[in-house]
Design brief:
Number of domains: 1
CATH class: Mainly Alpha
Number of strands: 0
Strand content: under 5%
Helix content: over 70%
CATH topology: N-utilizing Substance Protein B Homolog, Chain A
Order of helices and strands: HHHHHHH
Shape: globular
Distance between the termini: 34 Å
CATH superfamily: NusB-like
Oligomer: single chain
C-alpha cells in the first residue's frame, strides 16, 4: 500500500534527524534498513532518493538556515527543529513538485508532533522569511 505524502515526508524527517547523531554513511545504511519495512517500491525509492538529494545539499541548506536565523548557530537549534527546517528548506528551494505553502504547512505539522509547543511558530517564522 502506498504511503501518503505526509507519511513519506515524516519518514524523511525521521531519517534526517539521525544525521545529528551519525555519519552520513551510517544514516544511509539506516535508511536502507528503515525502508525494508516500506511496502511500495515507489515509496522506498522516493524516500531514499529525496534523502540522498537533501544530504548532498546539506551544506547549502544549512548556510541558508544560518542566513535566515541571524545570530543563531545551528547548534542552538533543537535537533528535531533543524531536521524539519532542512527538509522544508530543501523542498522550498529545490523541489519543484512541492508548492512553498505546502512545504511550510507540512513542516509546521511535523513540528506539532515532534517538537516543543513553541516550535511550530518558530519553524513557520523561519520558513516565512525564506519564502
Amino acid at each position: 500500500m502506498k504511503m501518503s505524502r505526509r507519511k513519506l515526508r515524516e519518514s524523511i524527517f525521521l531519517l534526517l534527524f539521525r544525521i545529528e547523531f551519525n555519519t552520513r554513511e551510517e544514516v544511509e545504511e539506516q535508511a536502507e534498513v528503515f525502508c525494508q519495512d516500506v511496502e511500495a517500491e515507489e515509496d522506498r525509492a522516493y524516500i531514499l532518493g529525496k534523502l540522498g538529494r537533501i544530504l548532498d545539499s546539506l551544506e547549502d541548506i544549512d548556510e541558508k538556515i544560518i542566513e535566515i536565523c541571524k545570530g543563531w548557530r545551528l547548534s542552538r537549534l533543537g535537533k528535531a527543529e533543524l531536521a524539519i527546517l532542512r527538509l522544508a528548506v530543501y523542498e522550498i528551494l529545490r523541489d519543484e513538485d512541492i508548492p512553498t505553502g505546502v512545504a511550510i504547512n507540512e513542516a509546521v505539522e511535523i513540528a506539532k508532533i515532534y517538537c516543543s509547543e513553541e516550535a511550530p511558530r518558530f519553524v513557520n517564522g523561519v520558513l516565512a522569511k525564506l519564502a
